Amino acid sequence: MIELEQAAFGWPEAAPVWAEVSLRVQPGEKLVLLGANGGGKSTLLQLLGALVFPTAGRYRYDGEAVTPARARRTDWARRFRREVGLLFQHPEAMLFNPTVRDEIGYGPRRLGLPDAERRIGEWAARLRIDHLLDKPPFLLSGGEKQRLALACVLVMEPRLLLLDEPLAHLDPRTAGFLLDWLAQSPATVITSTHQLASAPRLGARALVLAGGGLAHDGPLAAALADTALLARAELA
Ligand SMILES: Nc1ncnc2c1ncn2[C@@H]1O[C@H](COP(=O)(O)OP(=O)(O)OP(=O)(O)O)[C@@H](O)[C@H]1O
């Protein structure tokens, strides 16, 4: 489903954040993305979500190269946005509608999903923000904004979920809901986190970014037992 081949990414006028990243992810896999602050986890998730593109190497989604030219094609972009959901690290970055209802409904309505209104009610209830549906998102608390941002992504029931530190602002009950929901979801999920204690519930395969590259791609248990790797990735 996802294939990175010797991929690198650097922001304009800066050294590459990481380079020579090669990776294959099969449908339904659950991966945990670990690494130090500034190690490039968010950047990798943004690249997999086609918000930025490799500066070297290749990214293929379902066998097709993800390039700026392809992303400009409306038919391709529409299908990709329908299938791929990216939860930003800072929920404010993705909230811009006048009400919580419009915010959750933005994706389903824009893509013309016939059951958009049912989905809005269902996901608002699941994330316990149904009492806030008529409120402007900017009036929500930090945790409520995070739940809203999650609802906006999950309402699309994506095939590929890219979650950037989703547990950061959540209360234990909402975090528990998310972890349980992810465990039964058929979606492919890549989740970045600094919370090593919760990591085993997010996936059995770990990607560790360290030293400008992918320092580990393999069992999470092996990564957590590797003290030298954890030190390199500033995780311990
Ligand atoms: N939009 C941007 N423009 C320029 N540089 C950026 C941008 N976003 C991130 N960077 C830089 O890219 C590097 C990687 O940042 P990134 O946010 O991907 O790291 P991260 O692993 O997610 O970090 P954290 O754990 O702190 O969230 C950092 O040096 C950061 O300053």
UniProtKB/TrEMBL annotation:
The UniProt entry, under Pfam families, shows: ABC_tran (PF00005)
**InterPro entries assigned to the protein according to its UniProt record, in alphabetical order:** AAA+_ATPase, ABC_transporter-like_ATP-bd, ABC_transporter-like_CS, ABC_transpr_CbiO/EcfA_su, ECF_ABC_transporter_ATP-bd, P-loop_NTPase
Q: Keywords in UniProt for this one? A: ATP-binding, Cell membrane, Membrane, Nucleotide-binding, Transport
Which GO terms of the molecular function aspect are on file? Answer: ATP binding; ATP hydrolysis activity; ATPase-coupled transmembrane transporter activity
**One Gene Ontology cellular component:** ATP-binding cassette (ABC) transporter complex
Query: Which residues does the UniProt record annotate as the domain ABC transporter?
Result: 2-236
The superkingdom listed in its UniProt entry is Bacteria
Q: Which Gene3D superfamilies match?
A: P-loop containing nucleotide triphosphate hydrolases
Cite the PROSITE patterns for this sequence: ABC_TRANSPORTER_1, ABC_TRANSPORTER_2
Name of the featured protein = Cobalt/nickel transport system ATP-binding protein
Organism, as annotated = Pseudorhodoferax soli
